[in-house]
Structure formats: C-alpha cells, structure tokens
Design goal:
The protein is mostly helical. Helix content is 76%, strand content 0%. The protein has helices at 3-10, 24-44, 48-53, 59-99. The protein is elongated, with a radius of gyration of 21 Å.
Length: 100
C-alpha cells in the first residue's frame, strides 16, 4: 500500500478519480502537484482546503505567501541564468582549448 493510499484510508477517502492524459507534460505536472500536496500534508497535517474552510489562514497570509514564493522564483531564475552563463563560458573556453 502506498503512502497516499494509507493517508487516504486515515482520512476516510475511499475513491480517487483518475484521469487519462493525452499530454505527458501535463501528467508530469499533475504528479508533481499531488506529490507536493502529500509533502505539505505530512509537514502541516492539514490541506489548503482545511486552512481555508477552518479559517486557519487569512487572505493577508495567503498574499504574503504568494509574494514570498514569487520572490523566491525570481531568485531561482537569476541563479539559473548565472549557471547558464557559466556553462556557456566554460563551453567556449573548452572549445578554444581543444581547437589548438
């Protein structure tokens, strides 16, 4: 039995819909959402729906969370750009090194 099936049993979930995907990229993203949801549930013991319905977190906190996540995303983009630049420069150096 998978961790998700065990978690479902504990939460009284007896059936999950399954979807067919014509696009494997979409399936991969959905799989990541499900995995991320599992990690969040294990870490916090509640779902986003629980937080919202039970008023565990208000609109201001959601907006702060979004802002912080987007700020992190911008930092990751910059780090990736710098990594690509480094790889490009290394590639050029290697190219000239082997042409001699």
């Amino acid at each position: 039995m998978s961790e998700r099936e065990i978690m479902d049993a504990k939460n009284g979930i007896v059936c999950r819909e399954s979807y067919g995907f014509r696009d494997p990229v979409v399936k991969n993203v959905v799989d990541k959402f499900v995995s991320r949801s599992d990690v969040g549930f294990q870490k916090y013991g509640s779902t986003l729906d629980d937080e919202r319905r039970l008023k565990m977190k208000g609109l201001t906190k959601y907006l702060n969370d979004i802002q912080e996540e987007l700020m992190d995303a911008v930092l990751y983009i910059q780090a990736a750009r710098e990594e690509l630049q480094d790889l490009s420069e290394e590639s050029m150096i290697d190219k000239f090194r082997y042409e001699k």
